[in-house]
Specification:
221 residues, mainly beta, Jelly Rolls, 9-stranded antiparallel sheet, 17 strands, 4% helix, globular, Pentaxin_CS, PTX_dom, metal-binding, Pentraxin family member
Length: 221
């Protein structure tokens, strides 16, 4: 897909008068054209990861919502979804792993997913609370040379978007590490305490390429 209109942004958080300000992406309407590409610090060649974000949406009912998409030329390497039935899930190049958790809503949720190839251990954290552990894709590797997209699910490489799967709402603080963070570190992150920034995706310094009807606002965390 040709990116016809784009804006380079640096999502830099600053500390002012004891508070933290952060860039936030607002997707106001359902479209097949609004998306943000997030440029990683290094290739997503991964055998373990922690992926975190803050998200709020008023979309309800039987509707899929894409929360995060990493696509290579051949595969959806890593997608995070809200499913039709409200469960949250992530997919690594094939069948996914799903978690029955409280539904997302208009109140902001801090969300993390973790996975380790050696053990296959997969888990989800909502507002610092950990789900049960599931065994998923043991021995798998996430492959590099793809694009990270927020707001749309590409059914082929950077194209063929479906408005009925698009994200509508507010999303921010997207960070990714090439290891599984401890539960206590994720709890600290949810509480707003200082933790090491993502070494794969770092929201503070990330280059963002914004397309379509996406508003970038600054707010206090």
């Amino acid at each position: 897909m040709r990116l016809s209109a784009f804006l380079f942004l640096v999502a830099i958080s600053t500390v002012l008068a004891g508070s933290i300000t952060i860039k936030t992406l607002v997707f106001p309407t359902e479209t097949s054209t609004s998306l943000v590409e997030m440029v990683p610090l290094k290739p997503l060649s991964l055998r373990a990861f922690t992926l975190c974000m803050r998200v709020a949406t008023e979309l309800s009912g039987k509707r899929e919502i894409i929360l995060f998409a990493y696509r290579t030329a051949d595969y959806d390497e890593l997608n995070v979804w809200r499913e039709l039935d409200g469960r949250l899930s992530f997919y690594l190049a094939g069948e996914g792993v799903l978690f029955s958790v409280p539904e997302l809503g208009a109140l902001e949720t801090h969300l993390c997913v973790t996975w380790d190839s050696t053990s296959g251990a997969a888990a989800l954290f909502m507002n610092g609370r950990k789900s049960l552990t599931k065994i998923y894709k043991k021995g798998h590797s996430v492959r590099s040379n793809g694009k990270v997209l927020i707001g749309q699910d590409p059914d082929n490489y950077l194209g063929d978007f479906d408005a009925k799967q698009s994200f509508v709402g507010e999303i921010s603080d997207i960070n990714m590490w090439d290891s599984v963070l401890s539960a206590s570190t994720i709890q600290d992150m949810y509480s707003g305490n200082n933790v090491s920034r993502g070494n794969v995706l770092d929201w503070e310094t990330a280059e963002l390429i914004v397309n379509g009807e996406v508003e970038v606002i600054t707010r206090e965390l």
